[in-house]
Design goal:
Layout (H helix, E strand, L loop, with lengths): L7 H8 L16 H4 L17 H16 L3 H13 L4 H10 L2 H7 L6 H9 L3 E3 L2 E2 L12 E4 L6 H9 L8 E4 L4 E4 L14 H8 L2
Antiparallel strand pairs: 1-2, 1-3, 3-5, 4-5
Amino acid sequence: MARYTGPVCRLCRRERMKLYLKGAKCDTMKCPIERRPYPPGDHGRSRRTNTSEYLVQLREKQKARRIYGLMEKQFRKLYAEANRQQGVTGENLLRLLECRLDNVVFRAGWAASRAQARQLVRHGHFFVNGRRVNIPSFGVRPDDVISLRPNSPAEAIVRDATDLTAAVTPWLQADHDGLTGKMLKWPERAEIDTPVQESLIVELYSK
């Protein structure tokens, strides 16, 4: 599956906010947006500030897509699935994004960033209900048990990440000593702290 391989700090600068794509570095003065808080490119500083309704919606969609590390085709497919489900489409979309295996690994505190979580999953370091899963987009469901593969060479990396984790999201249960976790329930909108206005994304795709 395709993925973005360019400089991720450039994405944060384009959205004019920290998307926390590089883990701990984003909390330090080494973060490029601290020194250059304007869009990248030759005309970044002089880029117009007036925005149209469409541009606001587009930027919100791009922000969500970049936070979760999805390409446009993947994101649109996920939106179509959210639109087919009952309930509020925007909340369904965020729920589907949060329940991806790579995001669950990140939310459990086993990776410093979603990109690192994606790589760990892709290399087969995690089990779901006792079976190895190496698909980052795998949808985790309530009562699913996630665990690190026994004797995994990535254990040191995972434990280093847990040391930086202050708290685990309420819809997950994580044992940082045994490196096992369980999804307790579907995440509710109030429990998702991603800085995204999902209603703008729905408006964009509804055009």
